[in-house]
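Quick note —
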Amino acid sequence: MNQAELIQLGGSLLAVFFVAWLVGKMGLGSDPRIADADHAIRLAEEAEAGFRGIEVARDRAGFAAIVRNAEGRMMLVRAHGNFFAARPVDASVIGRLDKDFLTLTTPEKTFGAVTLQLGKDAGMWASRMREFSRG
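Predicted structure written out below.
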């Protein structure tokens, strides 16, 4: 290898390392998770002005959560790419209970269905959703 090829190789490696560093700084390729109840509440409150969460059902893996406010309104928060997205849970959201799992499907196709592993609390949150269909 001559000197020009070594310089080119070194420059290429330097560029690869710079791009990898930049991708890491931008958070691209990260695996966003909802850390805890406080994080879920903060995300729901950021999504809708005036929403004040008081109770959270967080998926065991941290990919999604349901946040309820004092009036009984609920907000579904989920990982969406490298960020989070939130939608209100109302009568238009279809809930399906399967043992410890609650699957919520919003009418918005781009939001997609979200399955939360809630353990023994899945039934309680499913019954809260039934209140919307009665109201």
